[in-house]
């Protein structure tokens, strides 16, 4: 009898979960995936992987996958299965009707950082060339939009300055508001390898995460700050750098403007950022702030890695600027082993940013308001384009509540579960006349949708992804698309139904168009990536195989110099009070992924079958709570019920949960505050109180603290 597990074929592709972008050999037998083998030649992972990429692929043919298009006139009605042609006609008819009734700007699109560069590019083209407006956004809005803003302002490119392997040359590693052992496990273990070789580790995070301390690695300094105090703490570190003259004057004079440095030094050097003052405010020892500053500034090679603990705040962009300033002041840019590196989240969120899924820029970060840039896109696309920046996703939702925004095309995103202040999102969804959802599953947002296009997962299509180190890798079709079309084909057919004559023989042609219109991708093509494996942008005539380390000689700004931004600390308006005395911060766990549509449908759920509330024993004791009790978490925005998990990973006064399960509705309590510059939501700070719901309904929280392994050694 033939062995049903014996593979017949293998295809090299890229994991679509996190921004590490591990290469895999997907082995198949017939139309089934048998194994995912981490690819040894993968330049982001060198044959390593984590439990998601390796094991959590069974969602691809799960019975819940939608296999036919669906439509309905009202969200009260049941879904009607229809042919693809009917679904496209219906959606196009609705969008045209809405635009005729309420105006061109009454519809918009949201693209997916879970989809390929080519698909993201097509969705923004759909908004701009077909809908005729710039109402286009993507989930980087709620993730790393402050990175885009804060790093562009200081060093020019809103992206990681290094490649992952550069960390093997770092002497000091500073991790700010990121938890790579859970969120970017393969990079996390590379980091731990470097720590074991003797590099020093500074972690700034309210929680004692696995990154702070685990069996294989411990931080030399952990600043367990109160959530929401990043800017104060980073300014205080800068204060020590300035007061103790630990900065790199030669670098600043050569690569920045000295007078800008002086202005910045006057701000951070002021008494209000003295470690004693900030230590009291942030809840950490002043000497630890000094020690962190000395360690970072003295390097000799110090690298910063950061995540959502920096960006998802009302001062998210300011926090990112603080990191840019610090690296400029200490000369930690432009060589191996240093740099400022956002640990970008979803598999292709860097691509989402690069390829124009923003209301104000086309692909390649070129402004829609620039006449010459717009003319180049008009020449390529054959239609006049709108010079007015469009609505961001939160503005689309606000406009929907106000009654002026009526239709939305959402590809691969679940705003009802993942956006903040869920009550508001649902009110917006209910007010729209046509929501077209293009997803793998009927997610939470589907409850408010009128059209469902059954999409294809990354295992069912061709294209490219751009990972957190700017690396563009191939996604290759492993199995046939379950509902017949790859996602890029669905968007093209939707364009055609709207009357726009797009046509591509393959996604390679879309990448060619991207290359023509986006300077940093000018040299990218399927042929190049197929030949050399992967390439980091900028990739052009001067760097035909891409660029590992940015900013070697100059910064990509008009004057070629880095800029010190003034970063005054302004506390968030979200305050604790007697009624809401605890600070809730939210984040992730290793085995589950974001809204969980995929990982909850795999055996990974054995490790994290529900979201729990981590609460310190002291806070639990004063509320009469035991481990496993069902508790009510109430904020100014809503209430949810979760099981309590007594923990010393959080300090008293801080509670923590994840948002992977729809039924726990973490975002029914998160606030509507957001970053001043980019509207990135403040998921990391919500004032709450916690109370016992019903001891009778309590029980053991069904969570295994950690899976047995976080990272897998090369197989084979
Ligand atoms: N397993 C797994 N991996 C993932 C994901 C997943 O869902 N599951 N999602 C992917 C996505 S989309 C993203 S964006 C990345 C996110 O990856 P990370 O950025 O690492 O994500 P988080 O766990 O949300 O937050 C990071 C840390 O910020 C800390 N933090 C909270 N408040 C503050 C604060 O005020 N200051 C500081 N300094 N720190 C604070 C939290 O305690 C947490 O440890 O992960 C990606 N990888
Ligand atoms: N409280 C709280 N909320 C948060 C965060 C937090 O830290 N705390 N983090 C925020 C962050 S950083 C992010 S990035 C968001 C993530 O939130 P989302 O982007 O909403 O979540 P994902 O799970 O990444 O996937 C979104 C949808 O894409 C679908 N999908 C996956 N692959 C494909 C594909 O190939 N094609 C198509 N068509 N669809 C696909 C999935 O089924 C799912 O419905 O959540 C945000 N929400
Ligand atoms: S670290 Fe895990 S989730 Fe991230 S790309 Fe690699 S295998 Fe996928
Ligand atoms: Mo994210």
From TrEMBL:
Q: Taxonomically, what lineage is the organism?
A: Bacteria, Pseudomonadati, Pseudomonadota, Alphaproteobacteria, Hyphomicrobiales
Q: What's the protein here called?
A: 4Fe-4S Mo/W bis-MGD-type domain-containing protein
**Key words, A-Z:** 4Fe-4S, Iron, Iron-sulfur, Metal-binding, Oxidoreductase
Q: Name one GO cellular component term.
A: oxidoreductase complex
**Location of the 4Fe-4S Mo/W bis-MGD-type domain:** 8-64
**SUPFAM superfamilies annotated for this entry?**
ADC-like (SSF50692), Formate dehydrogenase/DMSO reductase, domains 1-3 (SSF53706)
User: Which PANTHER family does UniProt cross-reference here?
Assistant: FORMATE DEHYDROGENASE H, RESPIRATORY NITRATE REDUCTASE
**Pfam families referenced in this protein's UniProt entry, alphabetically:** Molybdop_Fe4S4, Molybdopterin, Molydop_binding
